[in-house]
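Work Package 3 (structural annotation) set out to generate three-dimensional models for the target panel prioritized at the project kickoff. During this period the team completed the workflow that converts sequence records into discrete structure tokens, so that structures can be stored uniformly alongside our sequence database. As a representative example, we reproduce one entry of 516 residues exactly as it appears in the project archive.
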Amino acid sequence: MSSTVVSPRAGAREWLGLTVLLLPTVLLFLAMTVLFLATPQISADLAPSSGQLLWINDVYGLVMASLLVAMGTLGDRIGRRRILLFGAAIFGATSVAAAFSPDAGWLIASRALMGVGAAAVMPSTLSLISNMFRNDRQRATAIGLWAASVSVGVAVGPLVGGLLLESFWWGAALLVGVPVMALVLVAAPLLVPEYKAPQAGSLDVPSVLLSMASLLPIVYGIKEFAKHGLTATAIVTALVGLAFSVVFVRRQLRLDSPLLDVRLFANRTFSGALGVFLFSAIALGGVYLLFTQYLQLVAGLSPLESGLWILPAALALVAVSMLSPKIARRVRPAYVVAGGSLFSVAGYLVLTQVEASGLTLLIIGFYLLYPGIAPTMALTTGMVIGAAPPEKAGAASAVNTTASDLGVSLGVAVLGSIGAAVYRAQMPDDAGAAAGDTLPGALATAADLPAAQAAQLVDQARDAFADGLNLAAGGAAVLAALAAVLAITLLRKIPATGDPAPAETPVQREEELVHA
């Protein structure tokens, strides 16, 4: 007869502690989007070169992605709350430095250090949730809220940025993080318990360097491909990152106490959930970029108006993220995830029919696809963390966040490039180099033309952009459908969380890792 594990339920202190962890999560993803709107003001104020302007926008995400695994594992070794507080202090201080940057070089360096702080905070928030909430149902709800906070950060970035830029200078968009991180520094020691892995080994510094040498070139190569196509720089940097990845994996397999236990990927639940999340992130990443560009460049909305159109979808995503764990108590999580993915498929298919004058259809499609990803965010994240031993939850959460970052970057690179290629193919040869390359280039060219010619060029450019969105959305629909198939095939054996599960011993967990 199987015994069941009855885990203690979290109380008011843990739920207040969760609030403390969700605030920086919203902030860190808001910080990835809020500065894009400030680019014109930064250009006027600091006069950066074109290369510096790219680094101002990219260096934060690049540094964060390259350090996530190292920081997640370091938190497991020396204390997750300690790493959280370290990251909060670094992020808050460097936000002030960035806001008052005297030149572009200072802003780039400050944004890089903000990425260091973000890399420390992000995996800590998720891994601390796993040891604060031992009860399966409560942990699923808490992780659902964490996933929703990620989306809120991405969605309200343009809204917050638009509000601040209308009233203050561009640095105000960076100062938003200071009071949030100050609150974390004060409240986390009171409400969030410390956790570090028992009998944790020493940190392997060569593995840390190898993880950075693996992820940084790969992410940079993907971003380079998104901006300039399949250039030699994009190919070489990505190949260098892949070569270092092979060396990193081989070293981890030899170590008794690896930085990242790559044998976790043999776990069907761990790798399957990551795969579903990766496909979903690729689909959303590329289409989200084109969607926001359509709102501003085709529909002619301001950043603030665009943020207001996005907000209802973000609120729906929050609601579905909270509802998904409750549905998963009665329905197997794989079916909940697959059902959400199919809603996203429907939304992407609607976007394949959008024309240059089709704002209503665009909004309908987005309001279907965006909440559709909520079950994936809420449930696969919990699967990834739950599949790893408790002492490795920091590393597992870092892998989950890295998959999200890589997925979005791949989506922008691949689907964004598809949209750009369609745009260039649709534009007439006599449109001019700038107008034939991008929609912003066409709008800038049209400003110097007579009214009739300008209107014709703008109409051609907006039609071409809509055609690019159509094809990219079709690709996203295929990816979302693949995510649904992957969920059904690899995750269907995971029971509903309301079903009693037999107790699992460490030996059983190890056998699953080896034989799955």
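The chain has 20 helices and no strands.
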